[in-house]
Design goal:
The protein is α/β, with parallel strands linked by helices. A six-stranded mixed sheet has the order 5-4-3-6-7-15, sandwiched between helices. The protein has a four-stranded antiparallel sheet with strand order 8-11-13-9, with helices on both faces. It contains 17 helices and 15 strands. Bound molecules: uracil (URA). The site of uracil has 8 residues, from helix 9.
Length: 458
Amino acid sequence: VKIVLRKAKPHRIDIHGKGFLVNIVDILDKKRRGQSHTETEIKFLVESLMAGSTKDYQVSAWLMAACLQGLNLDETTWLTKAFVDSGNTLNLSQIGGFVVDKHSTGGVGDNTSLVLVPLLAASGLKVSKLSGRGLGFTGGTIDKLEAIPGFKTTLKKESFLKQLQTIGAAISAQTSDLTPADGRFYALRDVTATVDSIPLIAASVVSKKIAVGAHIVVLDIKTGRGAFTKSIEEAHLLARMCREIGEKFGKTFYTVISSMEQPLGYAVGHSLEVEETIRTLEGRGPKDLEELCLTIGALALKGADRTSSMEEGKAELKELLHNGKALAMFRKLIVAQGGDPEVLESYKEMLPQPNRISMLPSPTKGYVLDIDPMIISKVVKESGGGRVCKEDPINLGVGVLLHKKIGDPVEKGETVVELYADDDHYRDAMDMLQTAFTYSETPVTAMPKLIHEIYPDF
Ligand code: URA
């Protein structure tokens, strides 16, 4: 169906081509009542926002209605398509080589993308990636990269392709020519409590992946308290939906479902996660972060037919973490995107830092029974590390550095966590931070499982 955008009344559409005009308010009303949209309505919603005739506040209302009433698979596919069509898609045919992409649905302390982009590129695959900023309680890859002095996070189509060809990796935020509509919806979702909707997440994630056109995509679907899909059932649903929509666009999506029952690794916060990324690329990273990166990376290598088993892929990637090649690729990526590579040696001096670092001691001798990722995330956001309005600047230096993870033994008075927060926030943040930890006198036996599912089961 062709949309008729009447010049005189651009906020109305002629849905059936019979002169019956529907305006944006009717569309909002329809979703509020729980009715399904047509493709034309979804297209109109997205196109009219981009054209300026529909306003942010109207899309915000639609997002809330969609969050509460849901979107079916067709509506989600159309939304994905409208996001893709709002910009260009990359034609990677002249790039050569096998191009992969990786995306996470968002977690706490989740810097897997920062590690995997250079790691996979060091393995000889091409890595083409569009990422987002912080969303809801989760941090965003793009904000994290901006902690690196000079690093340019919006690449135009031509520069993106050129970089992919020359160094084998490129990473960018949504731009005016790559899924700009997802960028607009994404920023609104972040500040309107409309993030944790399976169809909205699927459309947002898949559209970015279709736009950059990799041969295969590996999705890390997070589950647990620190994820948008809290239950394993929801995570399965999201994984399936992304794969199905991907298939409709002719793309293969592989999925890993991984745990977000405690923060991933030890660092939460932009500068701290960049620092942890550097250590991981030097082969000195936290065990859980390394294991997850190796698993996702091995799935990409297997999907690209580069290895005969997951184990072989993991071993190859581990070698790249330990022989300096993954770190060397990160250096190339930083230089290519205008960043200062000296950050790799002098991260404490070069990454933004707060004016205070405070230690939280354990109140007891025993074992760490639980670390609530939602409280950790709230501490970082409330210390200035997240947005409340979409224009808000964020403080890239604030964060939380765990010294202990679930199951670790602790002595009374021993530091369990460091808080990186400025003077004006640290007291409240410290009070909140204490509540994230619970302790047990006896060893902890029920440890969260890191990886729940790998699809396909190679
Ligand atoms: N990542 C995205 O790109 N979009 C979402 O909605 C969630 C995670």
